[in-house]
Every structure is written in C-alpha cells, then in structure tokens.
Amino acid sequence: MDVLHLQDYPIFIGPCEEALSRFLESRRDAAVFVLVDENSESCCLPRLSGVRQLAQAVVLRIQSGETFKNLDTCSGIWRQLLDAGAGRRGLLINLGGGVIGDMGGFCASTYKRGMDFVQIPTTLLSQVDASIGGKLGIDFHEVKNSIGVFANPRAVFIDPGFLDTLSFREVRSGYAEIIKHALIADSGMWNALKTKRDLETLPWIDLIPPSLQIKKRIVEADPFEKGLRKALNFGHTIGHAIEAVSLQSAAPLLHGEAIAAGMICEAWLSFRAGYLDQQELETIAAYLIQVYQPQLLHDSNYMAYLQLMRNDKKNEADEINFTFIGPPGTAHVNQMAGEAEIVASFAYLNGRLGDQGLG
Ligand SMILES: NC(=O)c1ccc[n+]([C@@H]2O[C@H](COP(=O)([O-])OP(=O)(O)OC[C@H]3O[C@@H](n4cnc5c(N)ncnc54)[C@H](O)[C@@H]3O)[C@@H](O)[C@H]2O)c1
Ligand SMILES: [Zn+2]
After folding, report:
1. Residue of 68, 119, 126, 143 best suited for mutating to test ligand 1, as the one with most atoms within 8 Å of CB
2. Tens of pLDDT along 184-228?
3. Does 98 contact ligand 1 (Cβ within 6 A)?
4. Which of these three, 134, 165, 196, is where a domain ends?
5. Residue 221 shares a structural domain with residue 298
6. pLDDT tens digit string along 6-40?
7. Residue 272 annotated in active site
8. Least enclosed by CB within 10 Å: which of 36, 165, 170, 175?
9. Residue-averaged pLDDT of the chain
10. Which residue range is the domain that position 206 belongs to?
C-alpha cells in the first residue's frame, strides 16, 4: 500500500479494504453513509464486504450517468441524508466514478454546512484525476461543473482492483486524462504513451501513480486555480462544450472522449499560437484519433459550442481562455483565442477525420 499526502489528506493506493477498515476504526463517526449508483452498488460495494464498520452503514442510491449530475439528484441525496437522520458528525463515503465523487463531495460539503467525506474512486478517470484536488460540483443549465465548491476529502482510497469490472469504453475515457497529464507535464510519459496501440494490455496499476503525482504536484502548487492549475484544463474548454452538446443528443459522449476531441482542437490552437510545432501537433492528433476515433463536429453545433464556451467558468472578461501546450510536457495557461480561430480548430479536427476516413 502506497500512501501519498495532498495538503492535509492521505491518498491510499492499493487494495483498499484493510486501509479503509483502519481509517474508519480511527475515526468513530456518528454514522457512516455510502453513496452509490446502480453500477458501483453491484460491482464495487461487494468488494468492501470485509469492512466491518460498514455493516451498519446506510446506503444512499442515485442513478448513474453524467445527465444525473444535477441539482435534482443533489436534492435526492440531501433528502436521503435528512431521512436517515444524518448530522454533521456523520461521514459520507463516495463509492463510484467522477460523477459520484464530484456530486457526493458537493452534497457532503454543503449538508448542514459540511460533513466529512471520503472518496473511493472506482473508474480510471476518477482514480487519476477527479478524486483528488478538491474540486466538487454539478452541471447546471447545460454548463458543466458550473455550481460547486472547493473542499477536501478526509481521505482517498485508490484501488485499481475496481477497474476489473469497467467497460473498455470507460477505461479509454479515463486514459484521456492520463494523456492530458503527460502532455502538460511529462514528456517522458508522453513518449511512452504515444506508442501504445492496444489499451487492453496497458498496465494501469503502473500508470495510475505517476499520473496522480502530476495532478498532485500541480494542485499543491495552486490549490484554488489562480494560475498554474489551469494547465489541467488543457482540452477542456472545447471538450466540455462538445461533451455538453453531446449530452443532449441520442449518442452522448463520455467525458474523456469529448476531452480527446477537445485536446486535438486545442493542440491545433497551440500550434497556431506558435507554441507547438507542426510535427508534434500531427503526432498528438494522429494518436488521439487512432485511440478515440472521434466523430465529426457538425457545423450546425458550432454556435452552441461557442455559446457554452462563453459561459464556461474559465473565462475572464469577454475572451475565451485556453490552456495551450508547448513541446509535450509543457503548458501555457491564460491564453486567448478568438471565435474564428476556434471554429478553424473544429475544421482542423474534421479535416483530419476526413483524411483518415473515420468521419
Ligand atoms: N473534480 C475534478 O477535478 C474532476 C476531474 C476530472 C473529471 N471530473 C468529472 O468526472 C466525471 C466523469 O467521471 P467518470 O468518467 O468516472 O464517469 P462516471 O462517474 O459517470 O462513471 C462512469 C460509469 O462507470 C460506472 N462505474 C463506476 N465504477 C465502476 C466499476 N468499477 N465497474 C463498473 N462500472 C463502474 C458508473 O456507474 C458510470 O456508469 C465528469 O462529471 C467530470 O466532469 C472531475
Ligand atoms: Zn476532465
């Protein structure tokens, strides 16, 4: 079991039953609640059956999926906490992916002005990214993560064993954040990743800790996203808009799938701004297209993308704020791009897809 420390909370990496048992033993909470969705209840909760302190825990249930990461679901969680008589001295364990972690953490931090919570991320995406760093929240009026708070969990338990039941598509979605971490902060990791063709054989257990370390380092340097932490938003300004529009469609994208498309567009903007050379751009785009096979962006959606970006929390004044990358392993925060250039970046992605006959 490896233990990292971020600010004032431990991150345990390895099989979690025993570590969780010891952690709960040390706390003596008035009551313990476990938030699950139908998938984390069936696939993940049974893996905690050896944790004696959970025998009396109250299980709170929500429906899975990004479309439920909203105020109505929060209302349901707060209702369930109230009905169960939860006080401020209770503990909420968020067992699930990034949606459970972001929303459960938000509900805990606001319930009766804040109850303690623990993150047990069960998707690759939440294990390398969402579960640490203290950003919690929900989507509101189609704008991703537009309501939320910064608050830290009491502990995070990262157990790669949970990934056994995750679908290939979900694993690949999480891999996008590993690629992002490499592109913004670790050229060696990017050089290793860009040759990987077969995701099924990637050793996640070895890839999770270094990826987490990158996020930890960046969050420690800038916990409240005043500057440097914005590097983690690479791919997300455009990616969030693509994700939000897709959530209204019959074929919603997963977070990492949208971010992969966003990274291609934003790598092109980085190239246009002179930070990235053309060959690096082509390598990044080719790899992401090969792994994610993104869909064409329809021009009928361009206005919606731009509108969502204007509403995105990352904007300052009227301009749309981006994180660009330089040579892999470097990032430039607080970069601006105009709407014409952003639209041109959509056209670049579409052109690349056309070249490869994947559209
Ligand atoms: N707070 C942050 O810093 C941060 C960072 C990155 C992403 N996020 C957020 O994270 C969310 C995406 O997280 P996600 O990709 O984990 O999605 P998710 O939470 O929707 O989980 C994906 C799916 O996998 C299921 N699932 C979870 N664990 C499973 C398991 N072990 N076996 C089988 N099925 C399982 C879930 O029920 C769900 O259907 C987005 O809302 C995104 O905005 C937050
Ligand atoms: Zn993300």
Report:
1. 126
2. 999 999 999 999 999 988 999 999 999 999 999 999 999 999 999
3. yes
4. 165
5. yes
6. 999 999 999 999 999 999 999 989 999 999 999 99
7. no
8. 165
9. 95
10. 168-356
